[in-house]
């Protein structure tokens, strides 16, 4: 019987040799299992939610980290021998006790020092304001340090220069050295400040540097001053010497005689670029401790500088400067092609500059 059964199977296999492959083909032709579109959307949505959650945790941790850094800074200052217990906690990060490498502060070792930077643009009155501040016995503002390109070639050279300055090791005619209570510099926006603004903001916050913005409302008057200064740089009208600032009315009158011819095709572009540069700077440094003042306000009201002394927590003093203003007349009297300039700005957002106002 068994032999007969095996023989029957062999006979069937010989009659239909494709039977096994048919069964296999039948199994393999079943459709692959697919996930519906709704499932894929749900999975992607879940991934996005997880990503947002992780990002929120990261931002929260960064905020907590900055808070911890501020707290640690306050605690470290409290442990120093010069710490004044009457100083409010919020002020502690901005009061420093430098130990210069080039001299000993001696009896002034425990005189707290504020770090500051005057952030401005060329021909915006920063030279004049700096001399006013330097007339204060406790302020040392060391000029346009970053006008030297090598000092601003990269962020490393910038921070190295700032470290030397704020350690009271920078020597200049403005240095008060031992008993300085506020030390800083004049820094133009186009001298590496905007290029490396993120790193500089971090440095200011870490080192407790306060920013003093000095800007100009009437950008047309500033442009006239730029052109006149460039002309004197080339012509050297004062006995063969170029002077960006003058100390006598006679010198001011000589320089004011030059009336630039302004290219009306590029004028609005120049004004827009200057306006944007100032606006961008205010946005980029909004998270620093800062104060904003305008040249025109200081000219019309010298008490505005008392706000700066309050900002630096310094005693109020009468501030003096030998600088003499060069362009004192109406704008029409300082521009050679006034009618062209007037027609170019009429109907634009800069029209009010023609009358001496900002907008």
UniProtKB/TrEMBL annotation:
Annotated spans, Disordered: 1-25
Composition bias type Basic and acidic residues, residue spans: 1-13
Annotated transmembrane regions: 37-59
Keywords for this protein: Membrane, Transmembrane, Transmembrane helix
InterPro entries listed in its UniProt record: Nod_factor_sulfotransferase (IPR052796), P-loop_NTPase (IPR027417)
PANTHER family in UniProt: OS01G0784600 PROTEIN (PTHR32175:SF9), PROTEIN, PUTATIVE, EXPRESSED-RELATED (PTHR32175)
Protein name: Sulfotransferase
């Amino acid at each position: 019987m068994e032999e007969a059964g095996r023989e029957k199977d062999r006979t069937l296999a010989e009659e239909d040799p494709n039977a096994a492959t048919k069964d296999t083909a039948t199994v393999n032709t079943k459709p692959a299992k697919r996930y519906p579109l709704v499932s894929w959307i749900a999975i992607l949505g879940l991934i996005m939610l997880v990503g947002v959650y992780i990002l929120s945790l990261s931002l929260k941790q960064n905020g907590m980290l900055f808070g911890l850094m501020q707290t640690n800074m306050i605690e470290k200052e409290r442990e120093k021998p010069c710490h004044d217990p009457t100083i409010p906690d919020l002020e502690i990060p901005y009061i420093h006790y430098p130990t210069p490498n080039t001299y000993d502060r001696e009896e002034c070792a425990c005189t707290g020092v504020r770090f500051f930077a005057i952030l401005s643009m060329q021909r915006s009155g920063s030279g004049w304001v700096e001399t006013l501040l330097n007339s204060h016995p406790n302020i040392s503002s060391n000029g346009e340090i970053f006008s030297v390109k090598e000092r601003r070639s990269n962020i490393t050279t910038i921070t190295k220069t700032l470290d030397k300055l704020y350690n009271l090791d920078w020597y200049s005619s403005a240095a008060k050295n031992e008993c300085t209570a506020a030390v800083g510099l004049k820094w133009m926006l186009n001298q590496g400040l905007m290029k490396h603004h993120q790193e500089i903001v971090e440095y200011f916050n870490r080192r407790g540097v306060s920013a003093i913005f000095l800007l100009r409302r009437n950008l047309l008057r500033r442009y006239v001053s730029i052109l006149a200064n460039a002309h004197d740089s080339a012509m050297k009208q004062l006995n063969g010497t170029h002077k960006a600032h003058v100390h006598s009315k006679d010198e001011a009158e000589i320089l004011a005689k030059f009336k630039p011819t302004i290219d009306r095709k590029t004028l609005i572009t120049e004004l827009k670029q200057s306006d944007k540069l100032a606006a961008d700077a205010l946005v980029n440094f909004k998270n620093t401790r800062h104060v904003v003042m305008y040249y025109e306000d200081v000219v019309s009201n010298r008490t505005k500088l008392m706000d700066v002394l309050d900002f630096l927590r310094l005693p109020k003093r009468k501030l003096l400067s030998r600088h003499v203003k060069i362009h004192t007349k109406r704008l029409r009297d300082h521009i050679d092609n006034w009618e062209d300039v007037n027609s170019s700005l009429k109907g634009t957002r800069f029209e009010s500059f023609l009358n001496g106002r900002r907008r």
